[in-house]
Amino acid sequence: xxxxxxxxxxxxxxxxxxxxxxxxxxxxxxxxxxxxxxxxxxxxxxxxxxxxxxxxxxxxxxxxxxxxxxxxxxxxxxxxxxxxxxxxxxxxxxxxxxxxxxxxxxxxxxxxxxxxxxxxxxxxxxxxxxxxxxxxxxxxxxxxxxxxxxxxxxxxxxxxxxxxxxxxxxxxxxxxxxxxxxxxxxxxxxxxxxxxxxxxxxxxxxxxxxxxxxxxxxxxxxxxxxxxxxxxxxxxxxxxxxxxxxxxxxxxxxxxxxxxxxxxxxxxxxxxxxxxxxxxxxxxxxxxxxxxxxxxxxxxxxxxxxxxxxxxxxxxxxxxxxxxxxxxxxxxxxxxxxxxxxxxxxxxxxxxxxxxxxxxxxxxxxxxxxxxxxxxxxxxxxxxxxxxxxxxxxxxxxxxxxxxxxxxxxxxxxxxxxxxxxxxxxxxxxxxxxxxxxxxxxxxxxx
Amino acid sequence: xxxxxxxxxxxxxxxxxxxxxxxxxxxxxxxxxxxxxxxxxxxxxxxxxxxxxxxxxxxxxxxxxxxxxxxxxxxxxxxxxxxxxxxxxxxxxxxxxxxxxxxxxxxxxxxxxxxxxxxxxxxxxxxxxxxxxxxxxxxxxxxxxxxxxxxxxxxxxxxxxxxxxxxxxxxxxxxxxxxxxxxxxxxxxxxxxxxxxxxxxxxxxxxxxxxxxxxxxxxxxxxxxxxxxxxxxxxxxxxxxxxxxxxxxxxxxxxxxxxxxxxxxxxxxxxxxxxxxxxxxxxxxxxxxxxxxxxxxxxxxxxxxxxxxxxxxxxxxxxxx
Lengths: 447, 321
Prior knowledge:
The complex is a heterodimer of chains A (447) and B (321).
Chain A: H1 7-14, H2 26-37, H3 40-56, E1 62-67, H4 72-89, E2 92-97, H5 100-105, H6 107-112, E3 118-122, H7 125-132, H8 140-146, H9 152-157, E4 168-172, E5 175-180, H10 181-187, H11 195-207, E6 211-214, H12 222-244, H13 253-265, H14 278-286, E7 290-296, E8 311-314, E9 327-329, E10 332-337, H15 344-354, H16 357-366, E11 371-372, H17 384-394, E12 398-400, H18 403-406, H19 409-425, H20 430-445
Parallel strand pairs in A: 1-2, 1-3, 6-7, 9-12
Antiparallel strand pairs in A: 3-10, 4-10, 4-11, 5-7, 5-8
Chain B: H1 24-33, H2 37-68, H3 88-95, H4 100-130, H5 136-148, H6 151-162, H7 168-173, H8 186-211, H9 215-223, H10 228-239, H11 241-257, H12 260-266, H13 275-283, H14 290-320
Helix pairs in contact in B: 2-14, 3-14, 4-5, 4-8, 4-11, 5-8, 6-8, 6-12, 8-11, 9-10, 11-14, 13-14
């Protein structure tokens, strides 16, 4: 169930709006269109009214669970989880699945209206933002039950700015450089340890008629992954997190070095990336026309079942030996409780289940592209890739989420997506680009 | 209203209007009172319902957007803790938002292409079909077909033509142009797809107008020795003034409304920025910048108002004549 938050944006781009809308509820569609028409004020006012109305009216043994896992495999996984939770916890659960574009686009109104008791969301800043707005409930008491099963890194990723827990992590998947074992064996390639080795390898791949780095950024977010990796390798984890939190300046020479290094790698990237989706780029890796790809472990979803064992990856290579390569990007998915759940006891029971080792087993069996966040969760059924991913993340010193989860969502979507796209299109004006980003950052972070 | 002195009452209850003078005021009152109860209810409903709809769904949201554009509201929480930031959002739009300038340019380009290419082409097709050449029904249907499709679907259909690796155009030409991804091409690719649809629409409107032109006018022109081109530009075109205005307005409205197609292509980024997509990108989403997005929406409203004012001015002048 490990998928980048913004995959939805990819799907939205692929399917015509009219065709993609069967799954939408009429209400969410109405909301979407009204929002677009520009009456957010009215809507929010209605939403507030609805929320308080529901707060009082409790009762009913049912727990509602809002989910954005609407694709075939994740949906199957959700259904299996719900069935298992009902059995193990003796609660009745109503699963409301919403198409992920709609879910993420309407999250503000959804949470202010009458949200489900428990809803799917992402760890990190993206969770803290809603916790700070008072749109999610403190679930520290759930953590006193499940906490022992989690590492500190996961607890930190589930903690709001006020030091309380708001999130139960279920699965995660690391970002790294993925490739096909068979292709590399055939050509005799070795996983590079440093950036220079990676460049040498890329040159060799070009000689062999391959595209060294499969690359796509039509959706706007995949390129963020490459920026994150380079920034963490060049400037270290702490600088990256501070930069994302708006504490460091984008005009800093350190940031310019990141873009400059990336510029040096661009000739090895697949061209015309702005018109290509990550799935199309991943197809190049699957078909052995591209050598490797900086992407999350969810790339596994693009491979046939028979080829799953042929997927391998290596850590994004070291750039500066003083910084090393021990920071890993591994976005965590999980669940939160809405601010006034109708069935609070049931909701907490459900969250306890979601934080239990059992849930980890159900999820990772049904969808082998994710790894259970719960350390006690049984790993004997893991594929080779899952085992390797789990070890990889376990050995990391620090874990970042992803650019759009580590920074303000409005900054990520309205500033970074256009900026990274314009960099890919014209990598020569780095100074101008950094100044533009910094100016916009100031106006957004101070508002 | 062509006959302004028609009384505002049902004919069977109409009384001769009192003679002009000091009784005029009370006379009016009496006339209204003479409407039957049902008529009055009907009149009140016919006035009240549309007024409520217009005020509630158009005026209030529009005013709310304008007001919100002076705040930094992020869409969460009550309106009480909204901070008023003055014109900061507008300053940011103009000085600190790189996609804004291309968006305005693209909107203008859209308008120009619609005006210079799509509309004249639609008119030309209408005139040709009006000649009732052989198979004109077929051409009419073929040209009108795209109009039935939603722009989102049009975008998808053209994706099949434009696709870099699997598209028809690249396959036929043997090229590898990334029509939707390359900012040098994608605005033109989108415009072509829009024109494909718009031409049929203009054609149909114009055709309807042409059918209404009195044939004797054209005959008279021919008698006077005018050729086809002269007949069209000197006689038919001026006679069709009302239709011309409608076509003009539709061209402008469609250009400002341009949204669905580019949103389907790449959500209005990377060479396809339009003001409408920027509004959506800022307002719809998780941590929405409602204030900033509203400022963009207000700018769009102002631009639209300019065209609406021109239109109303022309139409009202028409009525006075």
